[in-house]
């Protein structure tokens, strides 16, 4: 199932009409919100963690070009081969070249939203290379030919009955059961054999440390460690914004990430990869490759306000607290990154032409901004994108890809007319007078609303007029 952002409204309507989907999300979102609240039971500690995480991310982004060069130098010195990709096509071509140069036909892949962003699995399939997802949630939805509906928990929209049905259809020898432990063990048994036989291991990167050339990977299942150590070749892919300056920057961001994502103080596994296997080591890959992907991030970086989008550490807290996401789920958005963070980052990745409806898919309640561990002002950025989708490029503002795609000449004329009347008291009074006398032309279904309301009176022109009204 591959939805499209251009069809957000019908996809959202379909999601709202699915009682099972809504029940699955309701339970999952309540659980994740409760876990986060328990992890941040001290508001002062929460504020301190978020403040520090914000400062670190802003400092690192302010030095991004320099840090990327430093990261490349350190990685090369460590024996990691660094590749640069401007877009998805270049990234997929790099993967194909590396895998085919080793005669590889099968790869096991740890959880990586960036690989979803470039549609790596589909691209490699065309080259005769199978990519098997090893994260349990990703494995489940891959069997069902779906995409992730959440950036942390890809199969959060599935319940155990649905998972059992998927295994029953796709896993040979599976005996139908609703025992969750048995379901998980079934998936692990399949994946364990694939780890042994895979030619290539693929992973994402949570933090790339410029100071040491270290790739940090956060996980709970151990599949990430298997993907990065068992196969002879490990290929990591990450967006260019994931670089941090110092190794000391990682613990505060790690704490903010885990608490916000799953309510954990620390995850089960934290992997630090600084190079391929050395001659005196018994395990690890013979080669390590790092693919640094732009894919629209430079556009966000160039705009001082939109640059804050790149502060994101992919915790998913904004989704868990968004009243829109929790009701329609991730697939309704039709983008790799759904929910509030997807609404502000997707326009840079695929343009405002395709995503013009997404910035309006928000109640602007502010919950996303209140829980963001790096304090991204998501509501303000949504308003900015709404304006840019409606307005033509302006000389004093950096043009966004697809800017003005949602422009409507009739709507623009209506707003200009309203601005004219609202800024001139005499015109406003006249229009209010006409509006009250032409009430009979309003459609009947709006009649009850208008009969009990009157147009607001214009503001006083001068202090003298205001004082005169008060003295009456």
TrEMBL record:
4Fe-4S ferredoxin-type domain segment(s): 302-332
Superkingdom of this protein's organism: Bacteria
Keyword Oxidoreductase appears in the UniProt entry: no
Keywords assigned by UniProt, alphabetized: 4Fe-4S, Electron transport, Iron, Iron-sulfur, Metal-binding, Repeat, Transport
One Pfam family linked to the record: Fer4_8
Annotated coiled-coil segments of the chain: none
Protein name, as recorded: Iron-sulfur cluster-binding protein
